[in-house]
Amino acid sequence: MYGKSLIRNISIIAHIDHGKSTLADRILELTHSVEARKMHAQYLDTMDIEQERGITIKAQPVKIMYKADDGQTYEINIIDTPGHVDFSYEVSRSLAACEGAILLVDATQGVEAQTVANAYLAIENDLEIVPAINKIDMPNANIEETRQELYDTLGIKSDETLLISAKTGEGVPELMKEVVKRIPAPLGRSDDRLRALVFDANYDSYKGVVAHVRVFEGRVSTHDVIQMMSTKETHEVMEVGIFSPYMSPVETLSAGEVGYIAASMRGADQARIGDTITLANDPASTPLPGYKEVKPVVYSGLYPSDPKDYEELRKGLERFKLNDAAFTFEPDNFSALGFGFRCGFLGLLHMEIVIERLEREFGLDVIATAPNVVYEVVMNDGTVVKNTDPSRMPKEGEYIKIKEPYVDLSIITPVETMGAIVGFIQSEKRGEFVSTENAGKNRIALNFKMPLAEMIFDFFDRIKAISHGYASMDYETSNYRASKLVKIGVLINKEPVKALSTLIHEEKAYRIAKALVESIAEKMPRQQFEVPIQATTRGRIIARATVRAYRKDVLAKCYGGDVTRKMKLLKKQKEGKKKMRMLGNVVIPKSVFLSILSLGKEDKS
Fold first, then answer.
1. Phi, psi of 192, rounded to the nearest 5 degrees
2. CATH code of the domain occupying 4-182
3. Given this chain, do its domains 377-483 and 486-602 carry the same CATH topology?
4. Which CATH architecture has domain 486-602?
5. Closest listed residue to residue 174, CA positions, set 166, 183, 184, 163
6. What are the two backbone dihedrals, phi and then psi, of residue 309, each rounded to the nearest 5 degrees?
């Protein structure tokens, strides 16, 4: 254990793909924290899905020992954070456990939307920022322009900015010297009453729930009896430790340190993220501030492909929520899908990652229904009902209006693609242009207000395509506005499939309905009978597609002869198909429920 004056707690923050995980690799190598034979790229991205996609999803802590030029050895706790806007909550939690942050900017891309957003998060947390321009080894690096952009957008002077290459390691030793010099040591005394902030958690088959903590005051040791301040539950500590980078047991965690506490907590709800841990025999009087509760913005139903896996899915969701406080779920059921859960996410990538992790980590085959935002329905009596499921929307005549959430959207893009982006958002996504700001040489920041629902389907891909990959974006939910929305329902073989219901602006209703039934018809397996796919709104069928039946050639043996015999055989076949359709059950495959996700691509025409 080191004195507080020799401890530094920092996060690495940046826009996606600006080199956070690569910088963490170089710091681990510089401080010899990992054996050379075990070292690999993106070392702190421990999940297979992170390695495959090349993105950080979970904030990952690590403790390193850094020997400075003055001969002192510093204990530096680093938290590598995600860059994607869907995981900004992970960033805010990590920053609350730190006194400083390295703000990384790509010299080839300049200051981007999440660079600004994450910098403001650090400023709100009163953190000391050490700015660094990365990728200076690249032939297309624009160092001076990037310095000017940092000054224009964040007021960071060029002499405060360090130049590094996380790939080659150039400038990283100088960066570590500045971290020790600029970032303050933690406050709080080890002899005060214990207050430790839970900033993350995970589940271990042997240890139970393991809480990741930053100790602000006091100390905690093995065999202490701790108390969770929100629930008053008590637990005996079985193990405390640090991340180096693997979990390594130690005797005590003291004020200023980052580590973990395992206390035989078996329930996923026993270690809530943002809660304060104190000692049961000498509790602190007030908890730490914790975190602002995050609210999901996208909802979808998750159902097991095999109904027998319902209990396994419930356990998987509980354990998943343990280290993802932004994720919510509650029981739900549909006649076509059986029992499942209505789940809330921070965005479409968040939803995609959750489903993929459930399938990988828990071996579950999951069906997801169409994603939807949270709508406010103003009923006839003036009450406001929040609705996350279009299939359960009140009938027309029972409500006055439907209000949908809007976002404040910021896009930084090269000047030459500005017109195309403004045109796309205004004409196809119901967005309102608000203002422009200078974002450095030949780049401009565009500000819009637009419905959140319009961002769900194929928005990010289209923006990237229009800007040739150079645009970056950030958004925040703002307010609710009344909109002319209609519910589109789907009938398969004349039976309603509520899980495929969706809310659409009335101007797009026919186009979306037509694309939806055609998409479903493509993915539906053929039956022995003809299967009609119909889309309805306001009691009317507005689009139809048909899945053709398998047909047997009943005329194969009729060589010549009376035409009435042929007609009789065809009529008999037709009657049989009709009877089969009335009695037959249509099996709806998983791909049909995913068909609505391709609507943005279908709607380009």
1. -80, 175
2. 3.40.50.300
3. yes
4. 2-Layer Sandwich (3.30)
5. 163
6. -90, 10
* 117-160 pLDDT tens trace: 788 888 888 889 999 999 898 888 888 888 988 888 888 888 88
Could you give the CA distance from residue 74 to residue 76 in angstroms, rounded to a whole number? 6
As given in the structure block, the two tokens for residue 605 are 């025409």
CA-closest candidate to residue 92, choices 61, 116, 122: 122
* Residue 601 pLDDT exceeds 50: no
* Chain length of the chain: 605
DSSP H helices, 250-342, are: 310-322
* Contact in structure between 278 and 215 (CB atoms under 8 Å): no
CA dihedral sign of residues 102, 108, 111, 117: negative
pLDDT band at 602 (very low <50, low <70, confident <90, very high): very low
Domains in the chain: boundaries: 4-182, 195-279, 298-368, 377-483, 486-602
Using alpha carbons only, what angle is made at residue 444 by residues 148 and 441, rounded to the nearest 5 degrees? 35
- Indicate the pLDDT class of residue 61, thresholds 50, 70 and 90: confident
- Enumerate the β-bridge partners of residue 345: 298
Find tokens 């406010």 and name the residue.
Answer: 376
Greater confidence, 76 or 113?
Answer: 76
Q: How far apart, in Å, are the Cα atoms of 26 and each of 22, 84, 168, 176, 380?
A: 7, 22, 8, 11, 62
Instruction: Classify 515 as helix, strand or coil.
Output: helix
Backbone torsions φ then ψ of 120, nearest 5 degrees: -65, -35
Fold adopted by 195-279: Elongation Factor Tu (Ef-tu); domain 3 (2.40.30)
The CATH architecture one would assign to domain 298-368 is 2-Layer Sandwich (3.30)
User: CA 139, 140, 141: angle at the middle one, nearest 5?
Assistant: 95
Tell me the one-letter amino acid at 217.
E
Q: How far apart are CA 58 and CA 322, in angstroms?
A: 12
Q: For domain 377-483, which architecture applies?
A: 2-Layer Sandwich (3.30)
Distance CA 146, CA 155 (A): 12
